[in-house]
Sequence to fold (173 residues):
Amino acid sequence: MPKFDLLPTRTLPMIPSQHPCHECGLCCRYVAIEIDPPRSKRDVSDILWHLYHRDVSAFISHEGDWYLQYTTPCEHLQPGGACAIYQERPAVCREYQVDECERWDPPGERLLMEDALSLVRYLRTYRPRFFDRVRDVVPRYLWADEPEPPRPILAQRPLHRRLNSKKRKRRRS
Fold:
């Protein structure tokens, strides 16, 4: 097998100290990829597979978009948060807006699912009918020992209205 000589290392200008990203690097510590919300057994199975791996999470943004997040730092991230290739960074880095940074704004996620159990709890609590349809692709150990979550009460009329409607029916008879 032929050997390749390493390219000579050169020092690039670092990010200016007055720049808002100076010594931060939060955006360089993970990769988040947008995915479709789960709509089928296969979708749930695929998301579970990702969540079985270390340093992988799923989240739902404030806009309702679903993402898989891989916590893995960029190889050019220097100790202290500086970028070793700042002047020649990729387009995705150049296009990133400072006002989108979690250093200045609240986290981008509305709901964070750090493991398979948290995905199952989300589905059981907020999408119970969907969970009932996809339950057979979810391993039993993730839900069998868990108490049944309370169903959202929003679908029912308040108790005082139900009682009042029964009284009205009795008066009509």
Residues 159-172 form the longest helix (14 residues).
